């Protein structure tokens, strides 16, 4: 009589208990918090947080370069010559720490690569002076090969700009608006020959799913 | 108890589905004869989105292009696009890293995506548009 009790079918409650246990084990093994290192796409859209990020930098640099290269004024300016430009700086007027030199580096690299402009680099003046001093003063260098002083080309245009932001937030939502303005000034006349601006809006909201 | 198991399964699936679909639709300008080739890798997205026009012209000796995207869906779509440029021999322009750019396309709206060749060597292009779920992005405080 006892054997009847052993072969008795398990109840629904017991069965669902087993299923629950199995599912939890599966979930734990699948979603385990392991550290995995992988290479990502450097050009991918990055939305880790609301702060100024790589996507914003790339967007600003690409849009400003495209706008400058496509403008009619630049078409006239670069028709027969490659103007020499000096990059002043992008003033960071936001509340964040942003490496604006990285933005101007991207813009000047893209402009140089287009073959339309040439650049002088004020950031390396001391290094150049040191090298020319060495070549002209030090007896180690053959004077016939030394680069003489006073032959560098002066910049005709200056590239400069501003990056500003408006940040607003409440308990559920945060919103940041960036405005990037860039200008190209003719150093001889002081006229601003070209200007453009681009805007970025980023919003963070609490997600419905996830923990 | 009876409802707990399926409910838990749904929750787990929702939490673990962290890999977004990244295939989309695109256009390739394969040759100098302006032969546009529309390529659809994601039919679900193609139902909601269409490329209706491709225009090219020369601006300051650079190839200038606009591609018109047209939404066929009532809700906003959160998309990304990327141009890739090629020279006359079909080689990708070296050193040019055009980024994926985020784009919000409102319901039934049309939008022109502008692209400018990075150098005068770049004569043909390809454009890729994809949908990546940004709404479900998790943020931790």
From TrEMBL, chain B:
Top-level lineage group: Bacteria
Residues spanning the signal sequence: 1-23
Gene3D superfamilies: 2.60.40.3230
Alphabetized InterPro entries for the sequence: DUF1425, YcfL-like_sf
Pfam families, A to Z: DUF1425
Keyword presence, Phosphoprotein: no
Keyword annotations: Signal
This protein's name: YcfL family protein
Upper classification of the organism: Bacteria, Pseudomonadati, Pseudomonadota, Gammaproteobacteria, Alteromonadales
């Amino acid at each position: 009589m006892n054997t009847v009790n052993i072969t008795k079918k398990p109840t629904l409650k017991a069965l669902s208990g087993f299923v629950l246990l199995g599912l939890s084990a599966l979930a734990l093994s699948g979603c385990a918090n392991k550290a995995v290192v992988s290479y990502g796409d450097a050009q991918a859209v990055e939305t880790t947080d609301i702060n100024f990020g790589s996507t914003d930098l790339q967007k600003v640099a690409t849009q400003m370069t495209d706008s400058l290269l496509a403008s009619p004024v630049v078409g006239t300016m670069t028709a027969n010559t490659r103007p020499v430009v000096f990059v002043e700086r992008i003033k960071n007027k936001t509340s964040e720490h942003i490496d604006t030199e990285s933005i101007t580096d991207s813009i000047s690299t893209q402009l140089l690569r287009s073959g339309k402009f040439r650049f002088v680099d004020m950031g390396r003046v001391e290094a150049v002076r040191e090298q020319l001093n060495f070549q002209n003063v030090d007896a180690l260098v053959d004077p016939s090969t030394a680069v003489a002083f006073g032959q560098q080309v002066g910049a005709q245009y200056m590239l400069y700009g501003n990056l500003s932001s408006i940040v607003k937030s409440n308990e559920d939502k945060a919103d940041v608006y960036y405005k990037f303005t860039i200008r190209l000034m003719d150093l001889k006349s002081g006229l601003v020959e070209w200007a453009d601006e681009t805007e970025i809006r980023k919003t963070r909201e609490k997600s419905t799913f996830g923990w | 108890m009876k409802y707990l198991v399926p409910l838990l399964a749904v929750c787990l699936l929702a939490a673990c589905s962290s890999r977004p679909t990244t295939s989309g639709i695109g256009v390739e300008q394969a040759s100098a004869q302006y032969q546009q080739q529309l390529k659809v890798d994601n039919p679900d997205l193609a139902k909601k989105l269409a490329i209706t026009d491709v225009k090219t012209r020369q601006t300051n000796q650079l190839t200038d292009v606009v591609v018109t995207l047209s939404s066929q869906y009532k809700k906003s779509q959160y998309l990304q696009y990327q141009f890739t440029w090629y020279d006359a021999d079909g080689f990708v322009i070296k050193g040019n890293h055009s980024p994926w750019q985020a784009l919000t396309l409102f319901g039934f709206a049309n939008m022109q995506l502008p692209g400018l060749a990075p150098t005068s060597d770049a004569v043909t292009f390809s454009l890729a548009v994809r949908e990546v779920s940004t709404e479900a992005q998790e943020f931790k405080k």
